[in-house]
Design goal:
single chain; alpha/beta; Arc Repressor Mutant, subunit A; D-Maltodextrin-Binding Protein, domain 2; 14 strands; 42% helix; 23% strand; globular
């Protein structure tokens, strides 16, 4: 039998002795923010209006301030503390999501290593994070015959792990068009034309993620050097950071002139959450993250997400083909298509390494 392990983050809030805030509270805040109506929010979260109202009164007492403001004739909206709480919940979850996933995998591996553990195929994957990857994890988790041990790290670090024999597959992003030729040497050093094969997962749109307040004045990377623009970056060695640095170099922009260039976040959602909070004005990431947080987006490049795998692993481990079947499935494509800016039309297609650099 499969051992499922999931570690979660919990918030405790309040004056004096903090009290745990369950997911219903944050779901209600998010629904109020989205619909501008407490009655509609209660319906969307599966609560009665009375229960929703009681939950808000409870947290008003605990916080000393109302998280939701009721406006006569204008519905409901989040107060300043309500908006900050909603942001803090999302931001904290995005910050620790990768760590919690990796810890969950380690705990599950330990449990499944006990006698009479599960059988079936197992693949160790070191991969750059992608929202499409989250869909893949969910679909694979439903299959008893296939287990993925995911460890998230940057694109180049993942490829290095594959070359050094530390994983079965490496997930990485590589830009299309003119940027591909500029970035190719950094990726090619870890890939062998005959020793490795590629599995295409999905293409996605990358660009500037912007608060709406600055969207009219920031049209491209050159506008990021203005003194009043606060930027938030992705971590060094991530595929997104590599692409962004190439874009700056291509346009002759000195990164030291960008206020906040040294401020790094680990995921696209963390960047978007920070912008949504008002702590920064601009970031570089995927359109899906901008859409998730209702932010503006300026498209600048397209890139494709691949899994690289050794030819010897393809021949010796049937689980590789099981994974390809999931990636090529209609379920994966249907869900990936819902991510703004993602294109999974060729998901699951085998491609030679040489095709990256032609």
């Amino acid at each position: 039998m499969t051992v499922d392990v999931e570690l979660n983050l919990r918030f405790s809030l309040g004056r004096g002795e903090p009290v745990e805030a369950d997911d219903r509270f944050f779901a209600l805040l998010q629904a109020v923010d989205k619909f501008g109506s407490l009655r509609r929010a209660s319906e969307e979260t599966g609560m009665s209006y009375r229960a929703a109202w009681g939950l808000l009164r409870l947290w008003t007492d605990r916080l000393g301030r109302a998280p939701v403001e009721m406006r006569r004739g204008q519905g409901a909206g989040l107060s300043e503390i309500g908006r900050k709480l909603l942001w803090a919940n999302q931001y904290a979850r995005d910050k620790v999501a990768v760590v919690l996933r990796d810890l969950s995998e380690e705990v599950r591996e330990a449990l499944e290593s006990l006698p009479h553990g599960i059988g079936g195929g197992r693949l160790t994957v070191h991969a750059s994070h992608s929202l499409a990857q989250d869909i893949l994890r969910d679909l694979v988790a439903r299959q008893a015959a296939l287990t993925l041990d995911f460890h998230n790290q940057g694109s180049l670090d993942s490829l290095r792990s594959l070359a050094e024999g530390h994983c079965d597959l490496a997930g990485f992003h590589l830009a299309e068009g003119r940027f591909r030729y500029e970035l190719a040497p950094q990726y090619r050093q870890w890939l062998d034309d005959t020793g490795h094969r590629l599995i295409r997962v999905a293409s996605r749109c990358q660009g500037l993620i912007l608060r709406h307040e600055v969207a009219e004045t920031i049209r491209g990377a050159a506008d990021l050097v203005r003194d009043e623009v606060r930027f938030v970056n992705r971590q060094t060695a991530s595929g997104t950071r590599i692409l962004f640095d190439a874009l700056l170099k291509n346009e002759g922009i000195d990164p030291t002139r960008i206020r906040g260039y040294e401020h790094e976040e680990f995921t696209h959602s963390a960047v978007a959450a920070l912008l949504s909070s008002g702590a920064a004005d601009a970031g570089f990431g995927v359109e899906a993250a901008a859409s998730q947080f209702g932010l503006a987006f300026v498209p600048l490049a397209t890139e494709t997400y691949y899994f690289a795998v050794a030819e010897s692993t393809v021949q010796s481990n049937p689980a590789v083909q099981d994974l390809v079947s999931v990636i090529a499935s209609s379920d994966f494509r249907r869900r990936a298509e819902k991510l703004k800016g993602y294109d999974p039309r060729h998901s699951g297609r085998w491609e030679p390494v040489a095709s990256l650099f032609e």
